[in-house]
Fold this protein.
Amino acid sequence: KAGVTQTPRYLIKTRGQQVTLSCSPISGHRSVSWYQQTPGQGLQFLFEYFSETQRNKGNFPGRFSGRQFSNSRSEMNVSTLELGDSALYLCASSLVQATDTQYFGPGTRLTVL
Amino acid sequence: TQLLEQSPQFLSIQEGENLTVYCNSSSVFSSLQWYRQEPGEGPVLLVTVVTGGEVKKLKRLTFQFGDARKDSSLHITAAQPGDTGLYLCAGGHYQLIWGAGTKLIIKP
């Protein structure tokens, strides 16, 4: 089975711009979660989608949004980028439950200048 | 708010030494997962423990879930450079609660 794929792997943006990141889960996995990872804050949960609906949400501002398509692929969008948004954004898929084993992609490294 | 505290945050030891990493909470979890993350990659699951008092072994790694299901530990025997990485614990309730991680460096 192919693993979780994320595109792009690296991204450089400037403050005020917006960005869209993409995630393709493992075939058959219906839950997709997004995380932000920084050296100072560790792994922070952004949101989780299941059957095209946001099922759980972390404590992030509304500039962070996401969606899931009928084929379980997911995108996350960050609008009005800030310097503090520079981070590794990880996508993880799991079979059904948010507490099932998380299978992570390699992440998208976002740098905001 | 449920929190998972990992300690130590950073550990650098020589090859062949033993070490223990802790994951503690005041909350009860239905399960606890341990992941390892290497540079440039996403975390990879090592083990899931679900029963209070459970002990699981993965080669030189021993995982223990506390009797009250509030804490867990990871013990590595005779650490090797290949064990280097970021070790993360995650507690399951209705969603996963993540610890901040332990950065482990094993020097040859």
